[in-house]
Design goal:
The complex is a heterodimer. By secondary structure, chain A is an all-beta fold. Chain A has no helices and eleven strands. Chains A and B meet through strand 5 and strand 10 of A and strand 4, strand 5 and strand 10 of B.
Chain lengths: 121, 108
């Protein structure tokens, strides 16, 4: 059974940093690209970042470019999102999602349950 | 960036009736479009990809159509479990991948 379990969310002050993790199981992790998608409270879905199977192709939304860094450790079956210079508008539930392919971004066939990030003083 | 626009924002439908949801792209995305369903407190679930192919386990009452810039998700006969928010997502161009703002299907 495919499982994606996010962790690392919490309450953080504006300007501070946070690192999210996503632990994957039930599939061959390095056969798939992976993504982060967020959802602000009561709002829609926003793609944040994606990374190919070998980290050779990485993309970011303009809203986080230069502040967030996505990475993966295939040996640990884990995906990460380093979030720096956090802003109030980064407050959201952050989902880890599996792409259907390894190398470029398509769509998502499995999602985690999300980890909540709240940016507030 | 390709902007995805969904309409209507809210659709009120009686159980057993047909629901038609629209998604428009600001430029052609060919057939590179997916639909997701999200229920309160749950992660999104993939319904449709390639504009018209149902994902594994999705009931046949869900169907997708369209190409280029105009897409439609149809639920032929709404069941109680279908009341949810539906999102379209383009994957023709990235980055970024982009979602529509969602259509909430509520009980009339």
């Amino acid at each position: 059974e495919v499982q994606l379990v996010e962790s690392g969310g919490g309450l953080v002050q504006p300007g501070r940093s946070l690192r999210l993790s996503c632990a994957a199981s039930g599939f061959t992790f390095d056969d798939y690209a992976m993504h982060w998608v967020r959802q602000a409270p009561g709002k829609g879905l926003e793609w944040v970042s994606g990374i190919s199977w070998n980290s050779g192709s990485i993309g970011y939304a303009d809203s986080v470019k230069g502040r967030f860094t996505v990475s993966r450790d295939n040996a640990k079956n884990s995906l990460y999102l380093q979030m720096n210079s956090l802003r109030a508008e980064d407050t959201a539930l952050y989902y880890c999602a599996r792409d259907i392919a390894p190398a470029r971004a398509y769509y998502f066939d499995y999602w985690g349950q999300g980890t909540l990030v709240t940016v507030s003083s | 960036e390709i902007v995805m626009t969904q309409s209507p924002a809210t659709l009120s439908v009686s159980p057993g009736e047909r629901a038609t949801l629209s998604c428009r792209a600001s430029q052609s995305v060919s057939s590179n479009l997916a639909w997701y369903q999200q229920k309160p407190g749950q992660a999104p679930r993939l319904l449709i990809y390639g504009a018209s192919t149902r994902a594994t386990g999705i009931p046949t009452r869900f169907s997708g159509s369209g190409s280029g810039t105009e897409f439609t998700l149809t639920i032929s006969s709404l069941q109680s479990e279908d009341f949810a928010v539906y999102y379209c997502q383009q994957y023709n161009n990235w980055p970024p991948l982009t979602f529509g703002g969602g259509t909430k299907v509520e009980i009339k």
